[in-house]
Amino acid sequence: MGSIRAGARSGSEGAVLATAWTLPNLITIVRFLGVPLFVWFIAQQRYGAAVLVLVVVGSTDWVDGFVARRFHQVSTVGKWLDPLADRTAMIVVAVVFVVNGFTPAWFVWAIVVPDIILIVNALVLFRGPLHLPVVTVGKIRTALLLVGAPLLLLHRVEGFGQDWILAVAQGLLAAGCALHLVAFTAYFRAAHLKYRLERAEQQSCRP
Q1: CA dist 109 to 8, 91, 131, Å?
Q2: What is the reported pLDDT for 110?
Q3: Is residue 30 included in any domain, yes or no?
Q4: Of 59, 60, 137, 201, which sees the most CB atoms within 10 A?
Q5: What's the sign of the alpha-carbon dihedral 147, 139, 73, 29?
Q6: pLDDT at 49 exceeding the cut of 90
Q7: CA–CA separation, 83 and 122 (whole Å)
Q8: Which among 115, 113, 165, 108 has a CA at the least distance from the CA of 138?
Q9: φ, ψ for residue 71, nearest 5 deg
Q10: pLDDT tens digits, residue range 107-117?
Q11: For residues 186 and 133, is the Cβ–Cβ distance under 8 A?
């Protein structure tokens, strides 16, 4: 899922490290490990534990970026590992929710299909990974999904079955999916704009 790295850690705060052994990357690996743990808890119907895992996974999405910038540990590996972890967690959670009947099928399609299109688009235009600066709507989208997903599970935990929790969760997830499509459009256009600019630059350099 790393063929388009929109929203990857920025290296503008200092030199980009070549080593993979940085604290932000270790935090990102924890996010990776949380994904199968989340799936296992869902399979065991331990929804309370699954909520806690989602909260930790969502928190590390902010923590690793903050640590990388604060302590000047932005790395080449982190630039692709961080968005890969984000996409992996987002897609797995969406699939698990749909398979278990927590959300309708449109939820997973709204998440997965745009990402697949962006990946294919990057491979066709650039023959490899593409890094684009993050757009604000993408940040809001991620925040909505990271809050909505745990709330949806929380509604299934004993003592938290109030209707308002379900309504808020569904509203946040629906808004997150809508903004996911908006972000997809922005990244798709940005990719094509970058491609046209590079082609124009190449042609201008020809004798």
Answers
A1: 23, 10, 24
A2: 92
A3: yes
A4: 60
A5: positive
A6: yes
A7: 15
A8: 115
A9: -110, 15
A10: 999 999 998 99
A11: no
pLDDT digits (tens, 9 = 90+) for 156-203: 999 999 999 999 999 999 999 999 999 999 999 999 999 999 888 877
Identity of the residue numbered 167: A
The confidence score (pLDDT) of residue 207 equals 62
In a domain, 18, yes or no: no
Cα 62 → chain centroid: 11
Cβ(71)–Cβ(22) under 8 Å? no
Q: Is residue 90 part of a domain?
A: yes
State the Cα–Cα distance between residues 5 and 7, nearest whole angstrom.
Answer: 6
Of 38 and 26, more confident: 38
Residues 5, 130: contact at Cβ < 8 Å?
yes
**Tally of structural domains, the chain:** 1
> What integer pLDDT is reported at residue 7 of this predicted model?
45
- Pick from 109, 104, 117: which is nearest to 4 by CA? 117
Q: Which domain holds residue 30?
A: 23-127+135-205
Q: How far apart are CA 79 and CA 88, in angstroms?
A: 15
Residue 163 belongs to domain with CATH number: 1.20.120.1760
Global confidence as pTM:
0.80
